[in-house]
Give the backbone structure.
Amino acid sequence: MQVKVSGGGIGRAVLIAVCCLSWSARASSLVDTSFNPGSGADALVETVIVQPDGKILLSGSFTHFNGTPHAYMVRLNPDGSIDTSFEAHPSYRVRTMALQPDGKIVIGGFFNAVGDQPRNLVARLNPDGSLDRSFDPGTGASGTLGVAIDGNPNPYIFATAVQNDGKILITGNFTNYNGTYITGLARLNSDGSLDRSFDVGDDLNTWGRSLTLLNDGRFIVTGWFNHYNRADHSRMAIVNPNGSADSSFAPNFGDQTAVYSAVPLSNGKYIVSGHSENIHKVFEQDIARVNGDGSFDTSFVGSVNDKTEMVRLQSDGKILLCGYFTSVDGTQRTSVARLNADGSLDDSFKVNVDNYAWSLFIQPDGKILVAGGFNTVDGYSRNGIVRLYPIVQPEDIVPPSLLVTTPAEDVNNISSSALTMSGTAVDSNGVASVSVSINGQSVDVTGTSDWSATATLLPGT
């Protein structure tokens, strides 16, 4: 392209600007680029849930999102932009969230206040993020079971769940709720008081990790415990509505094992995930399917080489998982993968995640939100949160057509010594890298699809 320019002291000049573009087609990427969180979270995103209106709640240990202060919680619009109508002010890390039908949000974690009000480890927010003062936990949860298997010796709530009757389940590492001795698991009334009709006796002997509601009013609790209410229930128990354990379910995951997540199957079996550090592992694959009595279903062939933080079930029966692993069934998969119903690796689902993932949420439209401590997914900058398609989209496999525009009017900031040029260079996926040469000078480029470049004018040009 020839551009005529003029500048003080140099008269008229003709500069030759050559723009060389290169691109890498992301033909197999599952990343949904219509969801753009900008620079994302500045630290770990631990939990992601989607509201009925499509807005997305994130919580974790981050203090900023997309460059703006949003400590420990933020709500996004469906396109990934920040929903500025939501402002929450927990004092510290929010580990878990549960959404009520009225739009209120139960949160649990490591905090001791929300705004200027004391709230120890558990609170409820209004739909706009403000504190719901009608939920009063008193002194809340406190005390520690004296173990730090998860790396944090402080008391915390790790999971919350809202039952159909409005009562609230909490589990984690605590020994007291508002002055009542209770360890690791409790049920609250909708006003935040302890539900004393829920009699769990001696409760969990160490911390709880996850809660999963079942359709019949029972629920699953998982964690590090090996006793529930004095009975043997290794790392997983199914709890009746009155707080007693279902004695017909008696799993044994072995020593030095934690169960992090569990989902029920329609045939009465369960997919479970977690981690085992014992060299003589019982739960050696970090993912398994267990029968209705708690025994291992040996027909399930899944095998993961490291911690599996969460499993979720798609409507077609395929199993999504995330965690710290780097291989599944001996095939390279980092942090996110999908299994077929029998546990074998689903080769059609592959994403390149650069670090660990903690949480999954399947949207009603089938798209998958993944949260964690990663920074890039398939080369896209996605700090802590990404949205994936469940299958490769047709437009993702169309070879991109490059569009290059650098009209004369985009040449600007002309001085006696320098020239700045700008323009656009995008392919059909919105991805391109740009290099610019001005009068034979290779110059640095700022940006990719929208770029600008500045070069020093040569003497005599």
Observations:
- Residues 1-27, 396-419, 424-440, 455-461 have pLDDT under 50 and may be disordered.
